[in-house]
From TrEMBL, chain A:
<protein>
    <submittedName>
        <fullName>Putative alpha-E superfamily protein</fullName>
    </submittedName>
</protein>
<dbReference type="InterPro" id="IPR007296">
    <property type="entry name" value="DUF403"/>
</dbReference>
<dbReference type="InterPro" id="IPR051680">
    <property type="entry name" value="ATP-dep_Glu-Cys_Ligase-2"/>
</dbReference>
<dbReference type="Pfam" id="PF04168">
    <property type="entry name" value="Alpha-E"/>
</dbReference>
<feature type="domain" description="DUF403">
    <location>
        <begin position="1"/>
        <end position="308"/>
    </location>
</feature>
TrEMBL record, chain B:
<dbReference type="InterPro" id="IPR025841">
    <property type="entry name" value="CP_ATPgrasp_2"/>
</dbReference>
<dbReference type="Pfam" id="PF14403">
    <property type="entry name" value="CP_ATPgrasp_2"/>
</dbReference>
<protein>
    <submittedName>
        <fullName>Putative circularly permuted ATP-grasp superfamily protein</fullName>
    </submittedName>
</protein>
<feature type="domain" description="Circularly permuted ATP-grasp type 2">
    <location>
        <begin position="73"/>
        <end position="450"/>
    </location>
</feature>
<dbReference type="InterPro" id="IPR016450">
    <property type="entry name" value="UCP005522"/>
</dbReference>
<dbReference type="InterPro" id="IPR051680">
    <property type="entry name" value="ATP-dep_Glu-Cys_Ligase-2"/>
</dbReference>
Length: 313, 474
């Protein structure tokens, strides 16, 4: 398998995951806006920060408002992380590695691109937004489904999975990074309705409300939320779950290639550290610092994988 | 149904249904036009979803276009095909012999059948190829001979396309689409299968492996990249053959072999089916600015470390100026008269010919010697006075750059449009594979059709479409 092909598959699935995460964030932002008492578009700032697109937004627009924020995240061609751009990039990578995927995966990817291009050709009104976000989720899910259902479980699949989980780990860590302060104990507003909305936001942006309820019941506690999103191995978007998936795919590669590259050792270390972590210790030592440390580790791991498997020259 | 004086492959010259179309016509008459129109749209959707698109040069990167597909097949009888394929085989044999000769002993020049300056002063002639024989003695691993038909019996070769003929993916996808949309048609008509093309191609390429290859030959397709107009085809062929699709930056010379960068390190390639031009193949030997090729690949090639398909320098055989010598070339190497006709050609490099061409521009087709894709040509009968005068100036300035031919009355095949069946001009590009094991011609080929009424330009870059091409079983 070509290094370029591994690179293309990895990024195709990273971008697909990113499209899904961004559309989930937009949905959260809209939802918060609707359920809030006071009229304010302030919530879009942390939403865009989480998606890593706030700085670009401020360069283009002078003021913060909902319509511009949604358009920026959803379909702006000036924002390389907009859903429209990210889907186009995913599809471009798929074209590049067309020979590495089954016909069904390619058609699902191309179909996703065509549907999203059409749905996002014009600005999306608030009324149409839920349907459009639903379409994006469905179309990306089809690509994932075709991948699971038709692709050989060989090195190609491993790279697709590593891309997916590195992107997902990064997304969950960013949500925590931007919102960590609402999870900290505060003398002022503990248990207030504002906190509840904020906690809700976090769970919503990782599609974890139902899962959280199953595990922790109806009482929303910041410490439980943090535990759920960082350490719970049943939660498919938690840092620990993602790290474990990355590790197992690197292990398959190591077995397949009969070698133990540095990235494997790094993934092992990350998984071990998460496994030994206790949520109380994390809070004692600093939630923010802990998440920062995770973000750095995932980023370094991604770079090492690119080197180990010769993605570039 | 047919235009005056034009041979229609369905209705002949006299409006009588021709035999190969009999079954098809019965089916067609029983069909509801509205259903067929829906099928036509459905076909376009399928093509778009599968990403069977081409990029148009000079447009934005994002623009990918469909080649229009027409659902009416072009049907060729077994008897017609036998004669055609004999003619093609003879021609391809002669081309390979010619190439070996001009790069080695040059007997044909010594015999005075082709002037030395036609070879020596030709940009397509590569001195780097002198004195070497490619692995297996094969120069043109893949050929796409462009043919046109003018009557029941007359086929002409327009071009030999001995460099890197494209379009074979459309031939295969067109058939696939027809099979999916109209399975009942294939039950009624026994159509010769083309589906083994990719597997045959891999076998044919592997049979040309170089001396350095030990074991099962590793084949790869070399593409200029995702923005190339034929990228879809490159990916399609690599996929269908089950080989890697590589770009120049995936390759480098390692231990005297051309090797590709894989996730486990560099692995040598035995046979490279390259879809980039000679000029870009090796910056050390040819265009030093090329980033598409592999530095040093020509040294490896000359040392027997890799097979390049088609061989560098094959362009000398499909050059439009050499074309006019093809009847001589066929006779010189095969000892037989050419089975397929050549279009009479005036070489503007010769004073008498140039005079004739300048006097008769409004009746002639004038082509650039190195042009392709229907660009840079003049079609006298349909050109405006102004276009003709502009071309006259170009011709006088660089006569060596042009050849001229009479306008042939190309045959037509009906397309399906709002008016029902409507005749449009077509050409035919059969695909030929060559290896030491022999010459293999896929029955049929790619039919290109000029969608505009009366137009003779079938190139996809100029608004042409394609059809499925059937060769019936005997």
């Amino acid at each position: 398998m070509l290094g370029k092909t591994a690179n293309g598959l990895y990024w195709m699935f990273r971008y697909l995951e990113r499209a899904e995460n961004t559309s989930r964030l937009i949905e959260t932002g809209q939802r918060i806006g609707l359920t809030r008492a006071e009229r304010s578009d302030d919530e879009w700032k942390p939403v865009m920060k989480t998606a890593g697109v706030y700085q670009g937004y401020t360069q283009k627009y002078d003021s913060l408002d909902k319509q511009h924020a949604i358009d920026w995240m959803l379909r702006s061609k000036d924002n390389p992380s907009s859903v429209l751009c990210v889907i186009a990039t995913a599809r471009q990578n798929a074209r590049l590695v067309r020979t590495a995927m089954t016909q069904e995966v390619w058609e699902a990817m191309n179909g996703c691109y065509m549907a999203v291009q059409k749905a996002l050709a014009k600005p999306v009104s608030e009324r149409d937004l839920p349907a459009v976000l639903g379409l994006i989720r469905q179309r990306t899910a089809l690509v994932r489904g075709a991948t699971h259902g038709t692709m050989l479980r060989n090195d190609m699949y491993d790279f697709a999975r590593i891309g997916t989980f590195l992107e997902r780990a990064d997304a969950t860590a960013r949500i925590l990074d931007v919102k960590y302060y609402v999870l900290l104990p505060s003398v002022f507003s503990v248990g207030s309705s504002i906190d509840n909305v904020q906690w809700e936001t976090i769970l919503r942006s990782v599609s974890a409300r139902g899962g959280y309820r199953m595990v922790h019941g109806n009482v929303t506690k910041p410490r439980n939320i943090a535990q759920f999103l960082i350490l719970d191995n049943r939660m498919p978007r938690s840092l620990s779950f993602c790290a474990n998936k990355i590790l197992s795919n690197l292990q398959y590669l190591a077995l397949d290639y009969d070698s133990a590259p540095p990235s494997l050792a790094m993934a092992n270390a990350t998984v071990a550290r998460l496994a030994q972590s206790d949520i109380d210790d994390i809070f004692d030592e600093g939630l923010h610092e802990y998440i920062q440390c995770c973000l750095k580790e995932f980023s370094a791991l991604g770079q090492q994988i690119e080197i180990d498997f010769r993605f570039y020259e | 149904m047919s235009e005056k004086n034009i041979f229609d492959e369905m209705w002949g010259s006299d409006g009588q249904l021709r035999a190969p179309y009999a079954e098809f016509n019965t089916w067609f008459e029983g069909e509801n036009p509205a259903r067929l129109r829906a099928k036509q749209r459905e076909a376009e959707e399928v093509f778009r979803l599968m990403g069977i698109t081409f990029n148009v040069y000079g447009r934005t990167e994002a623009e990918e276009r469909l080649i229009p597909f027409d659902i009416i097949p072009r049907i060729i009888a077994a008897r017609e095909w036998q004669k055609l394929s004999k003619g093609i085989e003879q021609r391809v044999r002669a081309i390979n012999a010619f190439l070996h000769d001009v790069y080695n002993r040059q007997e044909i020049i010594k015999a005075g059948r082709v002037p030395r300056e036609m070879i020596a002063n030709n940009d397509a002639f590569l001195p780097q190829m002198l004195g070497m024989t490619p692995p297996g003695g094969i120069y043109t691993h893949i050929v796409g001979v462009d043919l046109v038909r003018t009557s029941d019996d007359d086929f002409y070769v327009l071009e030999d396309n001995a460099r890197t003929p494209s379009g074979v993916s459309y031939m295969l996808e067109n058939r696939e689409t027809m099979l999916q949309m109209f399975p009942e048609l294939f039950a009624k008509n026994k159509v010769q299968s083309i589906q083994n093309y990719p597997a045959d191609l891999r076998r044919s390429l592997a049979a040309c492996a170089p001396a350095a290859c030990d074991g099962d030959p590793t084949v790869a397709v070399l593409t200029p990249g995702i923005y190339n107009s034929a990228y879809y085809e490159h990916a399609f062929l690599a996929d269908q053959m089950g080989v890697e699709l590589v770009e120049g930056h995936d390759l480098r010379v390692v231990d005297g072999r051309v090797a590709m960068r894989t996730t486990r390190g560099y692995e040598p390639i035995d046979v490279l089916y390259r879809r980039i031009d000679d000029e870009y193949l090796d910056p050390l030997s040819f265009n030093p600015k090329s980033a598409l090729g592999v530095p040093g690949i020509m040294d490896v090639y000359r040392a027997g470390g890799i097979t390049i398909a088609n061989a560098p320098g094959t362009g000398i055989a499909d050059d439009k100026a050499i074309y006019s010598y093809m009847p001589d070339i066929v006779e010189f190497y095969t000892g037989e008269k050419a089975i397929l006709k050549n279009v009479p050609t005036w070489r503007c490099s010769e004073t008498d010919d140039l005079g004739y061409v300048l006097d008769n521009l409004e009746d002639l087709v004038v082509k650039e010697v190195h042009g392709s894709g229907g660009y840079g040509m003049l079609i006298g009968p349909t050109a405006s006075k102004k276009e003709i005068e502009t071309f006259r100036r170009k011709l006088k300035a660089r006569p060596n750059n042009y050849i001229a031919q009479p306008t042939l009355s190309l045959s037509s095949v009906p397309i399906f449009n709002k008016a029902g069946l409507t005749p449009r001009h077509v050409d035919l590009r059969p695909y030929v594979q060559c290896s030491p094991n022999g010459i293999n011609i896929t029955p049929g080929g790619l039919t290109r059709v000029a969608l505009k009424q009366g137009s003779l330009v079938v190139n996809s870059s100029q608004g042409g479409g394609t059809k499925d091409t059937w060769v019936l079983e005997d």
